[in-house]
Amino acid sequence: MENNAKSLLSGMAEWLPGPFRTIVKSFAVRLDKSPIDSIEKTIDFTHSRASYIAQTALFGYLKARMGTRYRALFEDDVFSQAIRKSAILVFTSCLSDFTIYITSYVARDGDLTPEEATIFARQVFAEGLERGLLSVDSAEHPDGALQQFHDRTDRIIWPNVAASLEVFEQSASDLVEFAPVIDEFKALDREIVTNSIRFRWTNVRQQFQKRLDAPAVARDWRTHDSPPPFGGTAESSPTPL
């Protein structure tokens, strides 16, 4: 599966035109297998994999739907802007889903209280959003993303999340909703597209479960009086959107 991901991303780098080519190229170089044992590594893993899922799912759908016209449409200024906006929105949705999922495991196996889990999740999401949209003008950031995530965490019953995959339904729905495709095609493609992104999440979840040291993450997080500094040992990830 890991080799398939590298092959897919390497191939995408060849047919993505212009500035979009660098989005996926760096991620094909290395998929880290070291333990996730700190808050810094947790944030890096969360935003890098959310970016990977968003980009491969969105660009893969557009390429399949547009066929041979894909490159020409991607080079069109108006359509490129629409794709960029869609990519930002889908990334934000993927980050929200994956942050909730990751936090549920850290909370369960690292013995975080529900209150701590909520604070932890909000930190991971805020830092992940900042890093994922590092090269995006602030005017293009999704309106109300942080508040929407705060509202979502207010409704979460943390012990129930790890046992359910329903947490990933938002990113599946938003991929179809935000893709720059006409409504007629969205209706026809919905089942295939949502099943595709659900499948993409499977390998990422498996990576996370193998690498997570939840007690170590919880201990490290509790030692910080404030969020960790930006930077540190970052995961190899797609170039920020």
**Beta-strand segment tally:** 0
Number of domains: 1
Percentage of β-strand residues = under 5%
User: Which descriptor suits the 3D outline?
Assistant: elongated
Report the C-alpha radius of gyration, rounded: 17 Å
Overall average pLDDT: 82
Sheet/helix structural class: mainly alpha
Residue runs with pLDDT of under 50 for 5 or more positions: 15-23, 25-30, 228-240
End-to-end Cα distance, whole Å, is 24 Å
Structural overview:
The chain has helices at 2-15, 21-25, 39-66, 70-74, 77-110, 114-132, 145-154, 158-161, 169-178, 183-211, 214-222. The protein is mostly helical and 241 residues long. The chain has one domain (2-222). Helix 5 (77-110) packs antiparallel against helix 6 and helix 5 packs across helix 11 (214-222). The longest helix is centred in the middle third of the chain and has 34 residues, at 77-110. It is elongated and about 50 Å long.
